[in-house]
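Quick one, tokens below:
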């Protein structure tokens, strides 16, 4: 058929095709991509403000696509933030009013992006991905009541971990959908 065999940690559209037990190894390419970008900037003589802008616009944008689908391990998020901190040598994630630079906490941002995807699934239950997930993981209940189940995909595990954010920020309202 002319199909080539790929390694388990091969990448398609920037995302891993298979997420095994070693999540750190699977997502380590993300840290390496950010590190390579930062290494290219070290030769340039940039002001502190220039470094801050590069980190915010480029380095923090690199993981967003992957974070929309997968929960990146917290230890890897911390390592990525350390790589950025070594480049800019300051307290990155403190709010500006506390003397920080206002950089995102990558792990918290990752959870927020996954919660956004979960909310999208709740709001559009007829979408293809919502129907596939419903058929596989929560046939007889809502997505908020679903269990992780037996041998779930890493995408489903990630969404289930982000479900806590949706539950914290929502309230049950009794009604008949007309009021």
């Amino acid at each position: 058929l002319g199909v080539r065999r790929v390694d388990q940690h091969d990448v398609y559209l920037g995302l891993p095709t298979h997420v095994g037990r070693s999540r750190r190894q699977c997502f380590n390419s993300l840290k390496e991509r950010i590190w390579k970008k930062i290494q290219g900037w070290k030769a340039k003589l940039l002001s502190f403000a220039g470094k801050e802008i590069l980190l915010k616009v480029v380095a923090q944008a690199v993981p967003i696509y992957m974070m929309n689908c997968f929960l990146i391990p917290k230890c890897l998020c911390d390592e990525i933030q350390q790589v950025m901190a070594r480049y800019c040598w300051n307290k990155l994630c403190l709010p500006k009013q506390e003397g920080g630079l206002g950089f995102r906490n990558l792990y918290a941002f990752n959870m927020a992006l996954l919660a956004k995807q979960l909310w999208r699934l709740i709001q559009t239950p007829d979408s293809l991905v919502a129907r596939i997930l419903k058929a596989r993981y929560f046939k007889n209940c809502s997505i908020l009541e679903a269990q992780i189940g037996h041998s779930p995909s890493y995408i489903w595990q990630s969404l289930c971990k982000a479900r806590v954010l949706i539950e914290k920020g929502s309230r049950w309202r009794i009604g008949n959908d007309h009021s």
